[in-house]
């Protein structure tokens, strides 16, 4: 059932919801009155915010590409106007982030100003070592006094490991999206090229078949013309024979029949009567 529910979800709607959430968070973090102050002091926060902006830009490009396939004009215009407004917001966020990068400092590039060094720096003067009340300060002893202080700081407030999961995940997600887009564009280009080659080959084959059919039709037409000419010549010959046989009218036909009868009589006499005659 869960698979059926998720199969009915439109990926474009999911991408639009993700884009709206990301832009809302970034707008609250960068452009609002209570913007995050860590952006001015932490390059890590700025890098993470820049990765989120790139992810939002990738979602926007995907939605812009898919919005052209919407068939309803009103829905397509509304979607494109919303995407245009979101693109303008992304541009404002990018410009503001560039200004923050130009104004910010990189005192703590990993964890920002929330590290425990400032708190320990305030607590260190309240517990000075006893040697300072007895002995005058000496220059060579400065490293020895600073080492216990840093040791105490590290012992009471161990340094927090940098949280590299989010930027790595954001960078990996962005790299995967770019790789998928490149793969899809390469596959689309190759398929279009293959389709163009197939269309060209089919058109060439169709033209060759048309030429062959044209030649066959021409030969058939020539054969029909020759047959018609032969039929006309045969008709002329038959007419000539008919005129030769019937050129003299009924009297000529009766004479022809008489000659035939006479020849029959002569033949019978020669066959039956001739052998009986003895000289």
Automatic annotation (TrEMBL):
<dbReference type="GO" id="GO:0005789">
    <property type="term" value="C:endoplasmic reticulum membrane"/>
</dbReference>
<protein>
    <recommendedName>
        <fullName>Synaptobrevin</fullName>
    </recommendedName>
</protein>
<dbReference type="GO" id="GO:0006890">
    <property type="term" value="P:retrograde vesicle-mediated transport, Golgi to endoplasmic reticulum"/>
</dbReference>
<feature type="transmembrane region" description="Helical">
    <location>
        <begin position="250"/>
        <end position="273"/>
    </location>
</feature>
<dbReference type="GO" id="GO:0005484">
    <property type="term" value="F:SNAP receptor activity"/>
</dbReference>
<keyword id="KW-0931">ER-Golgi transport</keyword>
<feature type="compositionally biased region" description="Acidic residues">
    <location>
        <begin position="102"/>
        <end position="121"/>
    </location>
</feature>
<keyword id="KW-0653">Protein transport</keyword>
<keyword id="KW-0472">Membrane</keyword>
<feature type="compositionally biased region" description="Low complexity">
    <location>
        <begin position="141"/>
        <end position="151"/>
    </location>
</feature>
<keyword id="KW-1133">Transmembrane helix</keyword>
<dbReference type="GO" id="GO:0015031">
    <property type="term" value="P:protein transport"/>
</dbReference>
<keyword id="KW-0812">Transmembrane</keyword>
<dbReference type="GO" id="GO:0031201">
    <property type="term" value="C:SNARE complex"/>
</dbReference>
<feature type="region of interest" description="Disordered">
    <location>
        <begin position="100"/>
        <end position="169"/>
    </location>
</feature>
<keyword id="KW-0813">Transport</keyword>
<keyword id="KW-0256">Endoplasmic reticulum</keyword>
<comment type="similarity">
    <text>Belongs to the USE1 family.</text>
</comment>
<dbReference type="InterPro" id="IPR019150">
    <property type="entry name" value="Vesicle_transport_protein_Use1"/>
</dbReference>
